[in-house]
């Protein structure tokens, strides 16, 4: 083996080791090799000095590289923060870098749970124990509690025997299950307040250097910045969302106000142009894209499709109570009011849903409808007062100036030369009589009829459209009773044209009212023809043939068609006082034949044919028929 006579080869070897970043033990091998090769003492001394200097340089370079790695990690963390990445990703990167730079087995970060009042594991890197990863720490417990309370870093080389902090069975069990021994924790500080704790831990005893504590504190500061930035961003996003929502509400409100103004202008224009209720309903339908109808206070349609919806009265009551339109099934109902007086209802069809803006438009249409109805009623009441004066003069002295009365009626839109029906209405309760005149005006509202207080009640003169006069009187009695709130009796005179004939028709109506009361039919409505033989006696025309036909018609038709003698048998039965034996002798037939004929009479006339009132009508009709030669 050649002896080394100079230190040059060893020095070159040391430089190579420094250049390649060799391990520390490789430097000592250079001196040991020189000794084995028998280098002189002077050369060994020089190589030893050079080795020590090389190790010093090696340590310095290693510190620089470590510092470079730490700075790189910190720059990367700062870059993560600047890039505003997802908070969880940033915190995970910080914990991972803490574990990598400190060379620990695990690293983790805990944050307070304000709602639960404790602390939980937010991010972990390296733990394998489920118990440890799901630990929740109460305030002041464990190493983390000490860090949070003092806002200072704390490290322990052996957690199990360190008495500086409060041990709990749950925390010790988690640490034991994970196998951790050495732990360091540093606070996440924000404005002097601790908002979390960053930890690094090893499964073997270890002392943490001041540089490692400082590095972990820097990473903790970055984590605090990340949390604060995330909170600020969340607050900013929430504020922006609130601003966007408020802006949308403002835009929607502005659009609603503009639409409401347009609707108000259109509805107001209808009023100023003297439009009818039907025009308002059509405008509402166009504005709200549905169908609209107007009903009076009793639910009768004034305009729009069909009859009133089921339960309309309840919906109107609910709308009055709430002071706004209400939903009723698939429709919307708005009460039409004049103060607290119900005038009717506005109904919107085909729009199950209404937003607030459309609902306000609908309610405004209800107000306009009320205004129109009030105007119409005011005009109608004024006209009706003038027409009432005409009607009073007509009934008081019809023959004084028939031509003048007819001319006055024509000027008021009433043609007295056309057939009219005089209805006499009397309220059955004294307290309701004062309301009857107004009810009659409302009943005739929108028609060509006129009314006036006269005598004991109110007289209504309505155009005769043909058909059953008794049915007209019955419908009037029913409607007036609803309007007044108590029974109203209505008698109808025969249709008539001209002042004198109309006055006679009124007198017949008065007699019908009296007859209805005598018959116990107060609150009903009828004409003379509906009162049987009393109608014959009370009516001006004394329609005997009509009475006989109305009473015996089925028997007369049956006899004429089949050649039977039902009318003769019925006359004989009554003439014999209801005795079958005497009747069969008078008819010269068997008693069974009489029974069979009377059974047929019952089939044709009804089972009540032999009741006293009905029997009286039948006997009177038979007498009148006999007098007429029948």
TrEMBL record:
InterPro entries in alphabetical order: CdaR-like_regulators, CdaR_GGDEF, GAF, GAF-like_dom_sf, Intein_endonuc_central, PucR_C-HTH_dom, PucR_C-HTH_sf
Superkingdom as given in the UniProt entry: Bacteria
**UniProt keyword list:** Membrane, Transmembrane, Transmembrane helix
Q: Where are the transmembrane segments?
A: 180-201
- SMART domains registered for this protein in UniProt: GAF
Q: Is Disulfide bond one of the keywords UniProt gives this record?
A: no
Q: Which PROSITE patterns match?
A: INTEIN_ENDONUCLEASE (PS50819)
Annotated DOD-type homing endonuclease domain ranges read: 533-630
Which PANTHER family does UniProt cross-reference here?
A: CARBOHYDRATE DIACID REGULATOR (PTHR33744), DNA-BINDING TRANSCRIPTIONAL ACTIVATOR ADER (PTHR33744:SF1)
Family statement: Belongs to the CdaR family.
Q: What is this protein called?
A: GAF domain-containing protein
Give the source species.
Kitasatospora saccharophila
């Amino acid at each position: 083996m050649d002896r080394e006579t100079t230190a040059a080869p060893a020095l070159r070897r040391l430089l190579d080791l420094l250049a390649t970043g060799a391990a520390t033990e490789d430097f000592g091998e250079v001196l040991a090799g020189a000794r084995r090769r028998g280098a002189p003492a002077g050369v060994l001394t020089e190589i030893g000095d050079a080795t020590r200097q090389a190790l010093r340089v090696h340590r310095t370079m290693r510190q620089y590289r470590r510092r470079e790695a730490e700075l790189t990690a910190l720059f990367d963390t700062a870059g993560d923060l600047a890039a505003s990445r997802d908070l969880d990703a940033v915190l995970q990167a910080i914990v991972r870098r803490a574990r990598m730079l400190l060379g620990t087995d695990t690293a983790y970060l805990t944050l307070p749970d304000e709602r639960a009042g404790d602390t939980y594991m937010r991010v972990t890197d390296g733990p394998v124990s489920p118990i440890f990863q799901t630990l929740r720490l109460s305030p002041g417990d464990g190493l983390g509690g000490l860090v949070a309370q003092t806002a200072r870093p704390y490290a322990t080389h052996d957690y199990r025997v360190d008495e500086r902090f409060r041990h709990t069975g749950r925390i010790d069990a988690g640490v034991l299950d994970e196998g951790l021994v050495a732990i360091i924790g540093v606070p996440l500080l924000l404005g002097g307040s601790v908002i979390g704790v960053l930890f690094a831990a090893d499964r073997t005893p270890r002392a943490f250097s001041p540089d490692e504590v400082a590095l972990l504190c820097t990473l903790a500061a970055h984590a605090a910045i990340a949390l604060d930035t995330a909170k600020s961003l969340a607050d900013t996003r929430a504020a922006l969302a609130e601003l966007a929502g408020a802006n949308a509400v403002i835009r929607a409100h502005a659009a609603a106000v503009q639409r409401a103004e347009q609707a108000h202008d259109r509805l107001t224009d209808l009023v100023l142009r003297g439009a009818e209720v039907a025009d308002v309903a059509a405008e509402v339908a166009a504005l709200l894209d549905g169908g609209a109808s107007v009903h009076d206070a009793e639910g009768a349609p004034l305009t729009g499709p069909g009859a009133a919806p089921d339960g309309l009265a309840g919906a109107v009551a609910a709308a009055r109570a709430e002071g706004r339109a209400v939903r009723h099934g698939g429709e919307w109902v708005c009460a039409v009011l004049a103060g607290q007086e119900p005038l009717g209802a506005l109904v919107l069809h085909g729009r199950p849903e209404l937003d607030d803006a459309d609902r306000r438009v609908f309610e405004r249409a209800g107000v306009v409808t009320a205004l129109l109805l009030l105007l119409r009623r005011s005009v109608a009441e004024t006209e009706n007062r003038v027409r009432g004066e005409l009607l009073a003069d007509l009934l008081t002295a019809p023959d004084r100036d028939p031509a003048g009365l007819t001319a006055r009626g024509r000027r008021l839109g009433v043609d007295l030369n056309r057939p009219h029906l005089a209805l006499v209405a009397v309220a059955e309760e004294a307290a309701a009589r004062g309301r009857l005149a107004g009810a009659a005006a409302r009943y005739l509202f929108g028609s060509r009829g006129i009314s006036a207080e006269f005598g004991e009640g109110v007289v209504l003169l309505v155009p005769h459209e043909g058909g059953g006069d008794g049915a007209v009187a019955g419908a009037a009695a029913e409607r007036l009773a609803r309007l007044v709130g108590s029974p109203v009796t209505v008698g109808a005179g025969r249709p008539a044209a001209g002042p004198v004939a109309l006055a006679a028709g009124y007198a017949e109506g008065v007699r019908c009212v009296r007859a209805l009361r005598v018959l116990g039919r107060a609150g009903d409505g009828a004409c003379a023809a509906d009162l049987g033989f009393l109608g014959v006696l009370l009516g001006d025309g004394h329609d005997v043939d009509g009475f006989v036909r109305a009473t015996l018609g089925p028997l007369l038709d049956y006899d004429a068609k089949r050649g039977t003698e039902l009318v003769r048998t019925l006359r004989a039965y009554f003439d014999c006082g209801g005795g079958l034996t005497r009747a069969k002798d008078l008819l010269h037939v068997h008693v069974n034949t009489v029974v069979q004929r009377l059974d047929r009479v019952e089939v044709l006339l009804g089972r009540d044919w032999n009741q006293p009132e009905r029997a009286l009508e039948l006997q009177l009709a038979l007498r009148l028929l006999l007098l007429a030669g029948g």
